Amino acid sequence: MASYLARRLTLAVPVLLGILFVTFALARLLPGDPCRSTLGEKATDEICDAFNERYGLNDSILEQFRIYINDVLHGDLGESLKFGRPVTELMVERLPVTLELSAFAMLFAVLLGIPLGIISAYYHNSAVDVGTMIGANMGVSMPVFWLGLMLSYLFGVALKDTPFWLPPTGRLTAGVSIQPFYEAWGWNVDGDALTFPGFIANINTLNAILIGDWNGFRDAAKHLILPAMAVGTIPLSIIARMTRSSLLEVLGLNYIRTARAKGVKEIGVVGRHGLRNAMLPVVTIIGLSLGSLLSGAVLTETVFGLSGVGRILYDSITGRDYTVVQAFTLIIAVVFVFINLIVDALYAYLDPRIRLE
Amino acid sequence: MTSNNKDKPPASGNEPLLQVRDLKTYFFTREGTVKAVDGVSFTVRRGEIRGIVGESGCGKSMTAMSILRLVDKPGRIVSGEALFRGEDLLKKSRREMTAMRGQQISMIFQEPKSSLNPVLKISTQLLEVLRVHRDDRSVPVKTEAAVEMLRGVGIPDAARRVDNYPHEMSGGMAQRVMIAMSMAYAPDLLIADEPTTALDVTIQAQVLDLIRKLRDDRDMAVMLITHDMGVVAEMADIVTVMYAGTAVEEAPTIELFEEPLHPYTRGLINSIPVMGQVKDRLEVIPGRVPDLIDLPPGCRFAPRCKARIEHNLTRCEIQEPHLIEAQPGHRVRCWLYESDDTV
Ligand SMILES: Nc1ncnc2c1ncn2[C@@H]1O[C@H](COP(=O)(O)OP(=O)(O)OP(=O)(O)O)[C@@H](O)[C@H]1O
Ligand SMILES: [Mg+2]
To answer: Which of A257, A263, A268 sits opposite B103 (nearest CB)?
Structure first.
C-alpha cells in the first residue's frame, strides 16, 4: 500500500512539470503584449524594453522557463506584473475563498449525492428513484452562474423576512469578524512567516473551528450555503447518478446473492457488500468532478460577491499578467494532483486487487 | 436420531424435511409473463440427496431461489408451498426468513469465485455468517473460528488462507470456502446449485466427495441442482427431472437410469458422454427449450419429442399430461403412460 502510493507520488512530479510548462508556454504564446496591457497603450518602445528587461521577458522561452522553475522550487512564485505585489500575497487573499467554497460544494454534493444514489438504486423504478433521476438530469444541465442567480434571488430576496432567508452575498455579515487563530493563540508571526497561517486563517470556517468561535462559524457557513449549492449541484447530480448505476450493477452480482443466502440483513447486504464495491467508480467520479467544481466556483464567485481566484484569474489572463496566471494554474494543478492521490489511496483501500498490482 | 444406514438407499420412510408443493414463480417482464417455475412439487428427506436435473433455463435455480425466498424483481412467487419441517417458508416474515438462511438452510452456487465478495478477506466473509446469526451480540467472533471452518472442508494451510482475498484463490478452493461458509451452523438442508459446473473434472470430484461426506457426517439433506446426468448418477439418491418449469419425471436414481420413462429423460441419459465416444448433444434431443412466455398448449416437450411421432400420439400438442405414478415411487408426466381413465 505504501509503495503503491509512493509510486503514485513519483508519477505526480512529471505531471506537475508538464502542466507548468504547458501553462507557461500557452501564456506566452497568446497574442498580446504584457507591457502595454500593464502600463497602457501609450507606453513607448523604450519604456517597454526596460519593462521587458526588468521582468526577463527578453530571454528565450526556455530560459525563462528554467529561471521560473528554479524560483518555484525555492518557493518564489514571482511578482504580479500588474499589481507589483508578490503572487503569494495575492494567493493568501484569494485562494482560501475558492478552496473553502469548493470544499463546501463538494461536501454538499457527496453528503447528498451518495445517499440519494443509494436510495434510488435500492428502490429503483420507484417514485423516489424516478424523481431523483429527473432532478439529477436537470441538475447536470444547469448553468452554474444561472443557478447561482436563481438561488440568491430565491433565498436572498424572495424569502426575505422568513426563517429561510440566507445571505446572498459576501463571506461574513457586516460587523462579524473572526479573530485569526494565530492571534488567538498568541503566535508571533508577521511578514513572510505569515503566509501559511494567513492562508489558513483566511479559510473562515476552519479558522472559526480552530478557535472555537461557533457564532463566527455559523455566520461563515450560512454565507457558504447558497454558493455551495450552486457550485455543488452539477457534481451532486453526477455523483447521485453514478452511485445509483454502480450500486444497481453491484446489487445484481453473485456475491450479493451469497450475502443474502448467508442470512445477512438487507442493510448489511447493501452497506457492507454493495456499497464498498459500488464506491469504486463513485470515488473516481468525485475526483474527476473536482475539475468542473473548481471552474464552477471560479464562475460563481462573482455572483455571490466573493473575491476568490475567479476575478483575479480572469483579469490576469486578459491583462497578460503571466506570473499570476502561472501561479494559480500551478496551485490548482497541485490541488488536483493531491486530490487524485487521495482518490488513488481510497481506491487501494477499497479494492485489495489494486494494492497487489 | 433417524436411521442413517448407508447400505440401504435413504428410504422414503425418512421424515420429509422439505416439501415443495405446486410451486409457481413467474417473472413479470415487459415482454410477458415468464413462467420460470410452473407447478413444481418434490420432497427432500433427511440424509437424502435430491437431484434436480434439466437443461439450462428450465427453472432449476429459480426453484431453489424460491425456497430461500431470494427471487428478485420482476420475479415473484405466485403460489405454492414450501414446507420446511412442516412450516411454510413462503408464509414466513422477511425477518424469520433472514434468520433461517445460512443457519438452517444454506446455499452454494455455481461460479464460486464471483460468489465471494472481492473486497473482503475470506476470514471476514466466513465470520460474517457466525456474526449475523449469533444469539449474543456481545460475544466476539474469533479469527480462529474461520480457520477451523476452513480446516473442516480440507483446505490445507487454513491459517494462512483465511487472510486471502477471493482473487488469490482457485475456483475449487473458493467453492470449498463457500461450502465451509454454508456449513457454519450445520444446516439441515444444503441447496447446491450447480456447485461443480465451473470447476475442472478432478476438482469437481473432490468437491462432490466433500458434499457427500458432509451429508454422511451430519445427516444433512442436500438438494443438488445440476444439468449433468453424470453428477446425478454419482451423487443423488432420488431425482427430479425438470423441463421448461415443470417436473417431468421423478424416481430413485438407480431406477431412473435403469428404466427412464420420459422421452426427455431418455434423451438426457443418452447425452452422457461415454468414454471414447463423441456425441453431439443436440443430435440426441433436437430443438431447444420452449420460450417460457409462449408455452406450447399441450406437453411442453412435444415439439422436440420423437416418441410422440413414433407412437403416433395426437393429444400431446393439445393437452398437458399429468404427473402420474407409473410405477411405485416412479412418477412421469407423459401421455405414453397416462391412460384415458386417469384424466
Ligand atoms: N430476471 C429475470 N427476468 C426474466 N426472466 C428470468 C429472469 N431470471 C430468470 N428468468 C427466466 O427463468 C427461467 C429459469 O431460470 P433458471 O435460472 O431457474 O434456470 P436454470 O434451470 O437454473 O438454468 P441454468 O442451468 O442456466 O442455471 C429462465 O428461462 C429465464 O429466462
Ligand atoms: Mg441455474
So the answer is: A263
